[in-house]
Structure formats: C-alpha cells, structure tokens
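re: that chain from earlier
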Amino acid sequence: MRQTERFFVEGPNSLWQLYKTVAFSKVMKNFIIIQLARYTPFFPVKNWLYRKCLHMQVGKQSAFALMVMVDLMFPERISVGDNTIIGYNTTILTHEYLIKEYRLGDVVIGKNVMIGANCTILPGITIGDGATVAAGTVVSKSIPAHAFARGNPMVVTERKIDGQ
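^ sequence. v structure.
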C-alpha cells in the first residue's frame, strides 16, 4: 500500500496551481541539477549532486544509471540505501497532481536493491532491502524485502529464501 498525504484544492486543477505548492526557484534549481545528474557518467558526482544539492538520502556505492529521473518538485523525499542500482531511464516520483487534489509521499528504497531499466516508482512506496524490480515495472505498491516484482500491474512473483 502506498503512504501519501492528500491536499485538496479549489478552483483550477492542482497542476495549474503548482507554484502555490512549490517555489518556482526551487523547481528551476532542481531542474538544472537533475539534468546534470542524468547525463553525468560519474557515480560519485551524481550522488554528490543528489545529496548536497537536492537533499536526497543516497547510500554508499549506490548507482543511478544514465537518464534516471528523480522527482523534480520534492526530491528530498527520496531515500536510497547502500549498494543499490537504479536502472536506465527509471522515474522516481514523490508527487501526484490530480484534478481536485495533489498527493505527496516519501519513496524509500532499501539497501542492495536492483531496479531494472524503464521502471516508474510512484509516491509513497517502500522497496525493502534486497528486493529486485524487473525492467519496465510500474511500482504501484510497496515491495517486501528480498522479493521479486515485475509487470504492470505489478505482481510479486517470488520471494528469496533467507535473503539469498
């Protein structure tokens, strides 16, 4: 189950009211930093940008592949454990702007997690230590530790025994 906070709006849809929820200057700063990080081939530099400039929690030796897109509005709500791989072109969201509301949720990715290419991780998700997420998966609910998840809709197809 996803853990999100809901904020209701009146008037135009919530995305139209974006700059009432997050400062334009923050969005522009984050945009520039995220674009630099997306194309930087050096993992220590990416992780430094995420930690120091976007205030994300990023563990030791975690690797964000080329073109990973972290949340533009609230990247500080993303936490990634040690020795985790996030595959090419994966998107990690911590916000959803809907017609009459917007939602915010932390994304917590454990240690030793493998996330394949082209995944989308929705707000309010926890991915447990040692889990594997197959390429192309839309992570729409939390994944337990050491589980294997795949598909859209996502299904957990197996669990590893004793963390192996």
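Residues 24-39 form the longest helix (16 residues).
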